[in-house]
Amino acid sequence: MNAKPFAVLLRARRHCLSVHSWGVLVLTLVLGMLLAGPVTLGQKTAKLSLEDVVKLLKGFVPPDRVAVIAKNRGVNFRVTDDTEKLLREAGANDNLVSTLKDLAPKPTAPVLMIRSTPGHAQVYIDDAPIGTTSSEGLLKLPTLSPGDHKVRLALEGFSDYEVVAKLVPGETTTLEAKLVAAPSVASKLVTPAGKKAGASNATASIPQDKLKTFDGTVENRKSKFVLVVKETLRKKAYQVEPQSMFASFVDQKVRVTGSKNGDVITAQSVEPR
Predict the structure, then answer these.
(1) In terms of CB atoms within 10 Å, which of 61, 87, 195, 220 comes out highest?
(2) Structure confidence at residue 232 (pLDDT)
(3) Preceding amide of 242 cis, omega within 30
């Protein structure tokens, strides 16, 4: 046999073996990285996705081995009926499906965020008192069960606000509740003499040219009602008269029509803002 052609064939065979060995090595490395434990190169390995699990099964990784990998890595999906069908078509067995269901991220509780105008409203969920909104009107309820809930807000001087809120696991539902003054309060534009504003003698006690409006918040300080008004650089508390006109507006934003003399505001009318 001619030695030269034989040498060429030998080199070709060695080359083929080398290429084959390199391919096996690469495949081994890829599978090794995929089947690695939870930490690689000092970084936390991402949790397995549904696509990752299907690729492992279709890559002829035994389902019980996939279950072990899932326990090490964790999963970022939940097993629904459609998901389970896809997994079983890829080769999943009962053990793997059960493991994935146990490892699936648990749905977080729904959150109900209430924003009431004005604040300090009593909140009832399914007719049970559950809390009061803050002075800014906020109340966060993170422990309610999913589903429909009857929400009612009540505040003295205002009509009740009622709505049915549908809460979804893992989602925040924000409820904007603007309370409307009850008819008896909306018409409470009372003069110091007890007359309604709009009556023929409503402004008799205060000349029209001295009437001004003051926007502020009614507060109860040492059993005295005051109107806290935001001025240019600070907030200022004014004594208000007559006191009886402000009793039903404590901790509420109001607009007062009247006159100011020093630190005293004499009101002709008070209405919620």
Answers:
(1) 87
(2) 78
(3) yes
Please tell me the distance from the alpha carbon of residue 227 to that of residue 202, in angstroms, as a whole number: 22
Residues 122 and 129: beta-carbon distance below 8 Å: yes
Is 192:242 a contact under the CB 8 Å cutoff?
yes
DSSP single-letter state for residue 223 = T
Answer for the pair 84, 96: CB distance below 8 angstroms, yes or no: no
CB atoms within 10 A of CB 257: 18
Convert the pLDDT of each residue in 138-189 to its tens digit.
999 998 999 999 999 999 888 999 999 999 888 899 999 999 887 654 444 4
**Which is more confident, 11 or 26?**
11
Say whether pTM exceeds 0.85.
no
CA distance 2 to 266: 124
Cβ proximity of 228 and 192 under 8 Å: no
Burial grade of 33 (CB within 10 A; 0-12, 13-18, 19 or more) = exposed
Ramachandran category for residue 161: left, alpha or beta (phi over 0 → left; psi -120 to 50 → alpha): beta
Give the CATH fold of the 184-272 domain.
OB fold (Dihydrolipoamide Acetyltransferase, E2P) (2.40.50)
Fold of 111-178: Immunoglobulin-like (2.60.40)
Helix (H) or strand (E) holding 260: strand 253-261
Write out pLDDT tens, residues 54-66. 999 999 999 999 9
Domain ranges in the chain?
A: 3-103, 111-178, 184-272
At residue 155, φ and ψ (nearest 5 deg) are -155, 135
In terms of pLDDT, which residue wins out, 234 or 32?
Answer: 234
How far is it, in rounded angstroms, from Cα 15 to Cα 188?
99
